Amino acid sequence: MSEKSKNIKKLILGENLSSLNVIYPKFKSKVKCIYIDPPYNNGELYNHYDDRKSEKWISELEARIKLMHKFLKDNGSMWISIDDNEIHYLKVALDDIFGRENFVTTIVWQQRTTRENRKTFSNNHEYILVYAKNKKLFDRSANKLKVSSDILKRYKNPDSDQRGSWQSVSINVQAGHAVKSQFYKIKSPSGKIFDPPRGRCWAYNEKKFKQLVKEKRIWFGLDGNSAPRFKKFLSESKLGTTPETIWFGADVGTNDEAKKEILNYGGSKVFETPKPKKLIEKIFKISTNKGDLVMDAYAGSGTSVVVANEMNLQFIAIDKGKHFLKFVLKRLKKSKKPILSKDIKIIKI
Questions:
Q1: Same structural domain for residues 137 and 261?
Q2: What sign results for the dihedral spanned by CA atoms 229, 149, 275, 69?
Q3: What is the pTM of this model?
Q4: Domain of residue 194, residue span
Q5: Alpha helices in the chain (DSSP H)
Q6: What confidence tens digit (pLDDT) does each residue in 288-330 have?
Q7: What is the DSSP letter of 196?
C-alpha cells in the first residue's frame, strides 16, 4: 500500500529531533512541503519555549533542518518563519544545507498593521525563507495562485465567438532576432494597411498569419479598422498569477488575527506569536496538491495541521509541549472539516 493511500494523519508528542530520527526510515523523501515556525532567538521566554540560548540556537536548529531536508521529495520545499534577529545567520546555514542554488526566495510578511510607538522603529514584518530540495523541479511543480476577478473581466466576447470569451494580445514583438519573413504588410478588413512598429516585427510569418485569419483568431476591432491582435480564449488559458514576495496582513492575516483564531477555538492566550490560517493556506496552495504529505516539526498551536486537514493534505506534526495533543485535537474537531480522534494516529516519543 502506498503512503498516499494510507491517508497519513500523525500527531507526535515528543522532542522533534528524536522524533524525526524515529520516523525517518519510513518517510524519507516522501514529504512535499515542510513548514516550521521555530522559536526565534530573540532573548524572550515564551510559555512553551525558551529561546534565550543564543549560542546554541543556530546549531540546534541546523541539526533539525539537516534531518528534515532528507524527508523532502525531490520537488519538495521548506518554508521557515523567522524575524530580523537571525534571518541572515539562518540563511547562511540553509545555503550550506540545501545549496545556494536551491534558495527560492524570501517572503516579507506584514505580521502587524498597528504602529509600535514605544520603540525607535515600529517593526511590522517578519520573514519566510523558502528553499527547495531541487529548485528546478520545484519551479516546475509550484502552483500559480488563483486569478483575481479583475483578470477574468479582461475576457469578453464582443463578436459572439462560439469558442467563448477571449482577450486580444499584441502580435508584434521586438525585432532583435527577427527573420525576413516576419516583415510584411497586413491589410485589415476595412482596407487599412499595417506595418509592424519601428524596431518590431510580426510574431508570425505571413503564411502562419493568413492561417490564423482563416481560423478567425485575428481581431481587427469591431469595425475591422484596428491593428491586428491575436484572440486568446479563456478556455485555452492556463490562468494563474505568480506569487509576489510581499504578503500583506490584509490578505494573509496578522499575529493578532491568529490569536483571535485560537481564542475562537477555545484556547487560552498562551501562544504569543501564532501564525494565521490564511498565511499557511497560501504556502500550501503554492507548494502542494491534494493528497500530498506536509510536515511541521514545531507544530505549536496546530494551525498547519488544521489547514492541512481542511485542504485534504496528509500531515505529520511534531511538538513537545504538554498543550499539544489536547489543544490540536480540539481545534481539529471544531474546524471547517471536523476530524475525529480515531482518524488520527497519535504517537508519544
A1: yes
A2: negative
A3: 0.77
A4: 149-236
A5: 16-27, 54-69, 87-98, 135-141, 149-152, 206-214, 249-252, 255-264, 277-287, 303-310, 324-333
A6: 999 999 999 999 999 999 999 999 999 999 999 888 888 899 8
A7: P
